Predict the structure.
Amino acid sequence: MNFKDKRIELVNKLKRERRIYTREIEKAFLETPREMFVPESLKNCAYIDTPLEIGNGQTISAPHMVAIMVEAFDLKKGLKVLEIGAGSGYHAAIVSKIVGEKGHVYTVERHESLVEFAKKNLKNAGITNVTVETGDGSEGLSKYAPYDRIYVTCAAPDIPSPLVDQLKDNGTLMIPVGKMICNLELIEKKGDKIVKKNLGGCAFVPLVGKYGH
Ligand code: SAH
């Protein structure tokens, strides 16, 4: 079976499991070649619904986790989004398809080798509306703030205050809170207040850095 057929089969599985239920999101998954976001030796595993090693002890998230996060995030065309934890660049690639050419995804990664890996993968996949930056994402990315949406792909001990500061009013932050085993939290910024919603349990590699573990 070729990669395209495997991708269709995976998307159908995610639809049956109700992880994907929005047409735009289905389209983003069908248009994003996950085999281009994993190391050469793991290409044949790219369409297994599991996290995979990408070096530096880090992983590309399982497709169902990316699906859960994008479906719950109210993404729209034209939004400016910040991701913390670029890793392979795959999740950012999916989000970039949903926000479209008028939108933009900024993503921060602390490991220089993964920054290069993500940049290379995004370029090979022909994606031009994602900017990858090196840095401590627990401090956000003030250079391009404020953002409509911010999401974190690693587990934080608590909600880093710079991430709330860098959100626009009525913007939303999605963040796993805990250590490895965590709760996926959705935080809405309403003036100087925040409204929190717990989306359920999940497992992520830790967020390190100033506001990390
Ligand atoms: N979104 C990624 C998943 C990456 S796993 C993908 O689609 O492949 C989480 C990533 O967060 C790891 O690459 C890890 O190095 C990174 N990370 C952890 N703490 C960080 C921090 N403080 N700043 C930036 N990146 C961080």
